[in-house]
Design goal:
alpha/beta, D-Maltodextrin-Binding Protein, domain 2, 11 helices, 11 strands, Bug_dom1, BUG, receptor, Tripartite-type tricarboxylate transporter, receptor component TctC
Length: 326
């Protein structure tokens, strides 16, 4: 006769064997079903466009569907929180942006880049300054002179309050010796809605990446006055740097990177890291990025962590200087 202790022991052994089998399947067979890529910004903006190019490339590398899901709201907090809080099984991958080094300094969330395991940086683009095609500002100096004169109430947009391009504007104003309140920032859920507002004459200018504005520039609805980079960009050689246009030596760029929840198993992180490294070297990915006008700026997880450690401190100092720290 089998006693109850023997039954318990057998049940425990079976449970352990099942757990080992499930764990092994999760790590060894990953991925064996579709992956969701969470993007914290609106569809149609630069981050969304690059995310979809990356998703298509990861599908090729991993052999599993990768579906982009836009989780907007809260100035990027909603999407970044959804990535950090997702089940750490590798089936939710996030596309985090430079705002992860800013939101906690602004008192919007406790999240920072240490809330994730970082896979790789894929892309980072400098800010451009864009106006409507029929704007009275023919040059960047014209725009800056009007801001400095205080003759009219100037507005700008491009991302959430305290986002990377809001800080870019603040840095530009400070370098010009102007108060950060010289231009009113109109928060948006990314470049796409901000550029729509620009075309609708709701703002005076927009801070956004050059590829993000390219479609409305090509359509004759907007012009790009300058870019906040050290050198002119490939594919946009007609656009002067801010320093060339005004003498102001200020640069600012975004960051787009793959990340997963902090408790994701190392084996899955390794699989995704290998896929990302292969992705940026693939001809098809490079062609898609070039077609969109987007550069490739790759860093592995370790190097990206070091970069974001430094950038977190830098952004905190800028936000403090702008009086936005909470």
């Amino acid at each position: 006769m089998t006693n109850k202790f023997s039954l318990i022991a057998r049940a425990a052994t079976a449970a352990c064997a099942l757990a080992l089998t499930v764990t092994g399947a999760t790590a060894g067979d990953y991925p064996d079903r579709p992956i969701s890529m969470t993007v914290p910004w609106a569809a149609g903006g630069g981050t969304d466009v690059v995310a979809r190019i990356v998703a298509a490339g990861l599908e090729e590398q991993l052999g599993a569907p990768v579906n982009v899901v836009n989780r907007t709201g809260g100035g990027g907090v909603v999407g970044h929180a959804a990535i950090a809080d997702a089940k750490p099984d590798g089936y939710t991958v996030g596309f985090i942006t430079a705002e992860i080094n800013m939101m906690h300094h602004l008192g919007m969330t406790d999240l920072d880049h240490r809330s994730y395991k970082l896979i790789a940086m894929i892309n980072g683009e400098p800010a451009g300054i864009h106006v409507r095609a029929d704007s009275e500002y023919e040059t960047m100096q014209d725009l800056l002179d009007t801001i400095a004169s205080g003759s009219k109430r100037m507005t700008s947009s491009g991302t959430a309050a305290g986002g990377v391009y809001h800080l870019a504007l603040g840095g530009m104003l400070l370098e010009a010796g102007l108060g950060t309140d010289a231009v009113i920032w109109v928060p948006s859920q990314g470049a796409a809605p901000a550029l729509q507002e620009l075309v609708a004459d709701a703002t005076d200018f927009v801070m956004a990446q050059l590829p993000e504005a390219q479609s409305i520039v090509d359509a004759g609805q907007a012009r790009t006055l300058a870019v906040m980079s050290a050198e002119r960009l490939d594919g946009f050689e007609d656009v002067p740097t801010l320093k060339e246009a005004t003498g102001l030596d200020v640069t600012m760029s975004g960051m787009r990177a793959l990340a997963v929840p902090a408790d994701t198993p190392d084996e899955i992180v390794a699989t995704l890291s290998e896929a990302a490294a292969a992705l940026v070297e693939s001809d098809s990915f490079r062609e898609r990025m070039a077609q969109g006008g987007y550069g490739i700026h790759y860093l592995n997880g370790e190097d990206l962590t070091a970069l974001l450690d430094r950038r977190d401190e830098q952004m905190g100092e800028i936000i403090q200087a702008l009086g936005l720290a909470r």
